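This entry is listed as follows:

___
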Amino acid sequence: MKMVVKTVNSLPAAAAALLEEHKASRIFAIYGEMGAGKTTFIKEICRTLGCLDTAVSPTFTLINEYFRPDNDPVYHFDFYRIERITEVFDFGIEEYLTGEFYCFLEWPEKIESLLPDGTVTVRITVNSDGSRIIES
């Protein structure tokens, strides 16, 4: 999947397309430079999934949990601030990554060696005109 997103108004279609393209997947590693829109895109994905909570950046907490109407959780991770990969073992990252619920990971390059097979790689690239390319 490759989409050019010119405005935030295009994000709902991009979120729906990503989820449709990867129906069987639950782990999504979202790559992009600082300010590329990783959190904004995850926020829209959560909205598309019907999350009852508003997604916000978990930069300081490392993980946020949102709930869908069926009470299934959606996990949103931000690994930007971790300094050692061992830090993620303190909150049981293995259980999240092997579970049955959606996990969206910002700055996954910090824990790449732990990502399970089948993790969907999503790259957000910022164009010179401010638009984004989202590809998986």
Residues 11-21 form the longest helix (11 residues).
